[in-house]
Amino acid sequence: MSVNVRFMSWNVAMGPTHGTSLDAVADLINQENPDIVCMQEMTRPYVDYVISRLYALGWHTRGLNTNAISYTWVITISSLDFGNAVMGRVPITFGDAVFLPSDGSSEARAILRANAAIPGLGTVWVYSTHVSPSGGTSQLGAALNWAKSGLPGAPRRVVCGDFNYDNDRDEMKATWLNPPGPPQPDTPWVSPFTPALSGDSFPGNAPTAWIDYAFVVSPTVSVTAAGVRTNKVSDHGAVLVNTTIA
User: What pLDDT, in 10s, does the model give residues 233-246?
Assistant: First the structure.
């Protein structure tokens, strides 16, 4: 059996800090109609508000039709209740999270693992992370290598986030080598640890850099379409990925 699942990964940048409303955040999610949304740079009250708006718009009644919205969370700035989330119109529960090596700033960096229970299929592990632009390869390596290890067997995994590394950076590609190796010119992506070819995502309204990704980390997850929704709601475009999961 296989199920079609649509993912969104979006550094929302707290929406209102860019002069837009949380209603605009919810409206864009509703328009693009993903089943699972990985968000970065959001506060928990903001996520709660977006969910209330999505209920009003009927987003929860479409797609996989579980008729409810749930999410899980990891806090990276406790004073602001700020961090990364995985939200979906399927049952979403907390799996695990790890904090990445510090870059010396006041904001911690983490990668969240959530259990998404897909009706008729079972668990898909969904990750949401936000790597610091000054965190270097230590943060990048810690996030991606944790995501591709630590679970028994060959579970279905989709790894999303703002990695702050453009796609032509060899460090980004080398992180996925197994076993890991030093960056080399034109290092290829290594299957099955491959990104959906979504394209440039930053800045949000006229992107020129590909720094937001959705990685497929399972041979049973196939990407059927990928792209970026440009917008003025955030300073990042929203990565959209259609998958077929077996």
Answer: 999 999 999 999 99
What is the side-by-side order of every strand in the sheet holding 122-130?
Answer: 92-99, 110-118, 122-130, 157-162, 212-217, 193-195
Q: pTM for the whole thing? A: 0.91
| Residue range 85-126, pLDDT digits in tens | 999 999 999 999 999 998 888 889 999 999 999 999 999 999
Q: Nearest Cα to 147, choosing from 170, 113, 182?
A: 113
Name the 3-class secondary structure at 186: coil
Residue type, 154: A
For residue 176, give its domain range. Answer: 3-245
Bridge partner residues of 160 (DSSP): 128, 214
Tokens of 212: 């937001």
Q: What are phi and psi of 171, to 5 degrees?
A: -60, -35
Query: Residue 114: beta bridge partners?
Result: 94, 126
Phi, psi of 237 (to 5 degrees): -75, 160
Domain CATH for 185: 3.60.10.10
Angle ∠(154,138,178) on CA atoms, nearest 5: 35
CA pair distance 166, 164, nearest whole angstrom: 7
Among residues 109, 160, 99, the alpha carbon closest in space to that of 132 is found at: 109
What is the spatial distance between Cα 142 and Cα 152, in angstroms, rounded to a whole number?
Answer: 19
Total count of domains within the chain: 1
Triad 104, 200, 126: Cα angle to 5°: 65
The reply to whether omega before 192 is within 30° of 0 (cis) is: yes
